[in-house]
Amino acid sequence: MESITVEHISSLYAKYQDDLRVVRDAQRKFLKDRGKSMKAQLDDYEAEMTYLLLRDLRPEIVVEVGTFYGWSTMWILSALRDNGSGHLHSFDIVDNVVRNVPSELSADRWTFTKGDIQQHPEKVPAEADYLFIDADHGSRFAHWYIENLFPAVPPRTPTSVHDVFHGRRPKPFSEGSVIVKWLAEQNIEFFTPSTAKAPQVTEQLAAVKKELGLDEPVRNSDHNPMIFFTLP
């Protein structure tokens, strides 16, 4: 994967702006229609970056750990649909997502497994080529996926982890503190649109979105603690 920088993400906004505009409008309408029955966990920057990276990387197998109500699931599936290929394998201990994801999005490109992934690591496809993690945010789970999930997917797998930078630094004894420490030990750089951690990133991307006419919010949020990186 090309190194993630503001310049790279900005180029993806320009490259995929027409398709992204359609997805943004659909997601905005879906969120409005569902109201409180859809709790969106990603803000616009995180969701759009996920969509744009998946469009550009064109993965065949995406693994999503943690679906909540399906907001991230819908963005991922939208990217796979627009790519014309790829399959998403999602895992969660609750199945709210099943009631929310539209059938025209899931089609033949989605497999949902209800249950604790820690109890069934063998269900993770070994050929996964994108990994999305947004589940238990405790340090114990972070240690688990570093020790068990990361080695189960191919080297150099692009990965994103949510709920890392709620402030300038990860919360003590949290998933974020564990993964950031591990990345430092591995000399792996990460990219984040977190307003708390890297406000200059969202400022620059906001200018790009305004120029492209993509500045109307899909959902009102400035909470964007996700990080993006590539496994060793």
Short description:
The chain has 232 residues and is of the alpha/beta class.
Overview of the molecule:
The protein is an alpha/beta fold. It is globular. The chain is built from nine helices and six strands. The model has no long low-confidence stretch (mean pLDDT 95). Helices cover 43% and strands 12% of the residues. The protein has a six-stranded mixed β-sheet, with helices on one face. Helix 4 (71-83) links the parallel strand 1 and strand 2 (87-92). InterPro entries: SAM-dependent_MTases_sf. Keywords: Methyltransferase, Transferase. GO terms for molecular function: methyltransferase activity. It holds the Pfam family Methyltransf_24. This is Class I SAM-dependent methyltransferase.
Task: Indicate the topology.
Layout: H1 6-15, H2 17-34, H3 44-57, E1 61-65, H4 71-83, E2 87-92, H5 96-100, H6 103-106, E3 110-114, E4 130-133, H7 139-149, E5 158-161, H8 175-185, H9 199-212, E6 227-230
Parallel strand pairs: 1-2, 1-4, 2-3, 4-5
Antiparallel strand pairs: 5-6
Helix pairs in contact: 1-9, 3-4, 7-8
Features:
about 230 residues; alpha/beta; six-stranded mixed β-sheet; 9 helices; transferase; methyltransferase activity; Class I SAM-dependent methyltransferase; SAM-dependent_MTases_sf
Compressed to H and E, one letter per element, the order equals HHHEHEHHEEHEHHE
Helix content: 40-55%
Structural class: alpha/beta
Give a count of the beta strands, DSSP E runs of length 2 or more. 6
Uncertain segments of ≥5 residues (pLDDT<50)?
Answer: none
Q: What percent strand? A: 5-15%
What strand line-up does the widest sheet have? 3-2-1-4-5-6
What is the helix tally?
Answer: 9
What does the overall shape look like? Answer: globular
N-C termini distance:
12 Å
Largest sheet: 6 strands, mixed
- If you compute it from the alpha carbons, what radius of gyration comes out, rounded to the nearest whole angstrom? 16 Å
User: Overall pLDDT, averaged?
Assistant: 95
Pfam families: Methyltransf_24 (PF13578)
InterPro entries: SAM-dependent_MTases_sf
Protein name: Class I SAM-dependent methyltransferase
GO molecular function, one term: methyltransferase activity
